[in-house]
């Protein structure tokens, strides 16, 4: 399992991912799940990947091969819109899965993979897309300005509470780190290093990139202060009516 997320705010985009992969309970390894590509100066795209590692690596390799092929009619440099790139990645993923479907089914292994594509093409706004194993995709809305793949449930509550279009890029990045840390605390299949990329609207370069382990001072401080903040907030919750100094009146006890 893995956990990746992308956030879209007015100022730009934030991407974050863990790096743990599993092949059974007794074998875990570290692989980056965040991919950047050498593209023309009028565009930037980042892909996050979750699911079967062989499938995700094959898809990324095919994307890179098409970029290096001067005769390729369709690649990340030739698409006119980001949703065309999402379609291209989805079609590539389906093709890879179909090549190995029968062998994987015999072994009881799923070859499915999901991707998040985000970036910007000049003249268009920044966008993010979640690409399903079936090749179709969705994007965000103002009410739901983020996308997740992998082990999503533990890191979702803070995103729902904190992320809005007006959120700054830096706050969105801090929120992404807390979201991943919450997931790692609840699920051992998600683990460090954590990668974070911050893209500012219309810059066409990754403005900031972080590679954080448990020992990274920034990550350790975020963990510490977030845990302390939660404990402090908990102590301020209203008291029950039977507690000394309670703030809930008896009329509310039914």
From TrEMBL:
Signal peptide: none annotated. Pfam families: Proteasome (PF00227). One of its GO terms (biological process) is proteolysis involved in protein catabolic process. One of its GO terms (cellular component) is proteasome core complex. This is Proteasome-type protease. The lineage of its organism: Bacteria, Pseudomonadati, Pseudomonadota, Gammaproteobacteria, Methylococcales.
């Amino acid at each position: 399992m893995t956990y990746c997320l992308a956030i879209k705010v007015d100022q730009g985009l934030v991407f974050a991912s863990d790096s743990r992969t599993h092949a059974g309970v007794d074998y875990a390894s570290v692989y980056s799940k965040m991919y950047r590509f050498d593209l023309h100066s009028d565009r930037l795209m980042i892909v996050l990947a979750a699911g079967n590692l062989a499938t995700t690596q094959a898809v990324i390799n095919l994307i890179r091969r098409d970029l290096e092929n001067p005769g390729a009619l369709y690649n990340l440099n030739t698409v006119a819109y980001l949703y065309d790139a999402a379609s291209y990645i989805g079609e590539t993923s389906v093709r890879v899965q179909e090549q190995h479907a029968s062998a994987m089914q015999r072994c009881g292994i799923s070859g499915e993979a999901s991707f998040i594509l985000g970036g910007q093409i000049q003249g268009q706004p920044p966008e993010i897309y979640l690409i399903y194993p079936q090749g179709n995709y969705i994007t965000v809305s103002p009410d739901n300005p983020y996308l997740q793949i992998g082990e999503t449930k533990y890191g979702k509550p803070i995103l729902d509470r904190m992320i809005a279009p007006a959120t700054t890029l830096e706050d969105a990045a801090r929120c992404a780190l807390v979201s991943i840390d919450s997931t790692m605390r609840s699920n051992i299949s998600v683990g460090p290093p954590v990668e974070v990329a911050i893209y500012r609207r219309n810059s066409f370069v990754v403005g900031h990139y972080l590679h954080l382990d448990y020992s990274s001072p920034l990550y350790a401080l975020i963990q510490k202060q977030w845990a302390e903040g939660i404990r402090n907030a908990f102590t301020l919750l209203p008291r029950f009516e039977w507690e000394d100094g309670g703030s809930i009146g008896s009329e509310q006890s039914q």
